[in-house]
Structures are given as C-alpha cells and as structure tokens.
C-alpha cells in the first residue's frame, strides 16, 4: 500500500510539475515556457506525414467548396477547406468535413454491382457493360412509352416512362445540359433535382 501511495505521489508531483497551470499560477509568464508541457513538446503537426497535397471540390452540394486533400503514399489521410477559395475561404460544413470518412469507408461501393431480375445475389460487372445496359434500357423504355400526339391531336412528343433525379452537386450549366438532353432530346417530362429535397 505504501508503495502504491509513493507511486501515485510521484506521478502527481510529475503531473503538477509538467502541467503548465501551476507554473503560471506560481508567477511564470504564460508567454514563456510555462505554457509548455512534455505532451505539448512532443506534439507534431497532424499533416506532417503527408507527402502530397492536392485540391478537390466537396461532393455534397452545389456550393462547390474547395478542399485540400493531404495524401501519403497515394492515399488520402486528411481533407480540409482550402483558404485560397473565394467560395468557402477555408471552411467546410459538417458534411464537407466528413468527406474523408466517406472516401475511405469500407462500405463504399466502387465497382459496378448488378442484380438480375428475380435474382437474390449481386454480381460484379464491367463499367462498359453497365453503361451500355443503361443506354439500351433507356432507349427501350422511351420507344415503348413515347407519345407523339394526344387523342385530341395536340403534339406533345414526350414520355412518362422514364425520369431523372439530378444530384445536388450539379451546377447551373450541368443542369441546363441535362434539361436539354432529357427534356428536349428524350422527351422526358419527369425531371427533378435532389437539391430541392
């Protein structure tokens, strides 16, 4: 028991000696070394390990906040706001600050998964196959549901068999082109944007 007390007393004395507050209360200036401790002396900048810094744009909304992506050995280790950006001036909202977690999540799907009709299992497919399938099914749905004229003869040239839900990260120019392609080219009526949800 005495040994335990001596050990605790020794740790307590080291703690009080190392802790900056007692030294400052004893009269040492907080602008001097009194504000330092063993812990603070051993701290290193968290981004010191990065061997590259790249720029990116936050993927979560159409504001387009700039980000600095710190990487080590080709893998991102930290993401923060870019202070050079006139948009966000180095700040990020909670969603943007969580970009690294989304990027490195083990649950993130980064390959094409396909489940055939009535199947219970997903299977990997090549991206080219998926893009071709989307194009074929879009054309098939449009061809099967396209209406040129209403029963009264009014020209409508539209389909309600397919629709579009755009992402919040799309900017005005991208939305303009999507509207032109989907509405004018394919005749889609149902066009919505996730930013309104």
Automatic annotation (TrEMBL):
Pfam families in the record, alphabetically?
Answer: Molybdop_Fe4S4
InterPro entries (alphabetical): Mopterin_OxRdtase_4Fe-4S_dom (IPR006963)
Question: According to its UniProt record, where is this protein located?
Answer: Cell envelope
The record, for SUPFAM superfamilies, names: Formate dehydrogenase/DMSO reductase, domains 1-3 (SSF53706)
Q: Which residues form the 4Fe-4S Mo/W bis-MGD-type domain?
A: 51-107
Major subcellular site = other
Task: State the PANTHER family in the record.
Answer: FORMATE DEHYDROGENASE-O MAJOR SUBUNIT, TUNGSTEN-CONTAINING FORMYLMETHANOFURAN DEHYDROGENASE 2 SUBUNIT B
- Entry protein name: 4Fe-4S Mo/W bis-MGD-type domain-containing protein
Originating organism: Belnapia mucosa
């Amino acid at each position: 028991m005495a040994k335990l007390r001596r050990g605790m007393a020794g740790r307590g004395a080291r703690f009080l000696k190392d802790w900056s507050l007692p030294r400052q209360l004893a009269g040492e200036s907080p602008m001097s070394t009194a504000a330092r401790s063993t812990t603070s002396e051993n701290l290193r900048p968290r981004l010191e390990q990065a061997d590259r810094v790249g720029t990116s744009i936050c993927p979560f909304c159409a504001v387009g906040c700039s980000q600095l992506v710190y990487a080590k050995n080709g893998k991102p280790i930290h993401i923060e706001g870019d202070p050079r950006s006139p948009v966000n001036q180095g700040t990020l909202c909670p969603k943007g600050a969580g970009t690294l977690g989304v990027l490195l999540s083990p649950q993130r799907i980064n390959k094409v998964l396909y489940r055939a009709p009535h199947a219970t299992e997903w299977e990997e497919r090549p991206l080219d196959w998926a893009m071709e399938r989307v194009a074929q099914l879009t054309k098939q749905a449009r061809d099967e549901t396209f209406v040129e004229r209403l029963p009264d003869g009014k020209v409508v040239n539209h389909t309600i068999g397919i629709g579009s839900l755009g992402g919040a990260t799309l900017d005005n120019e991208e939305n303009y082109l999507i509207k032109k392609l989907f509405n004018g080219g394919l005749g889609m009526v149902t066009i919505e944007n996730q930013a309104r949800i």
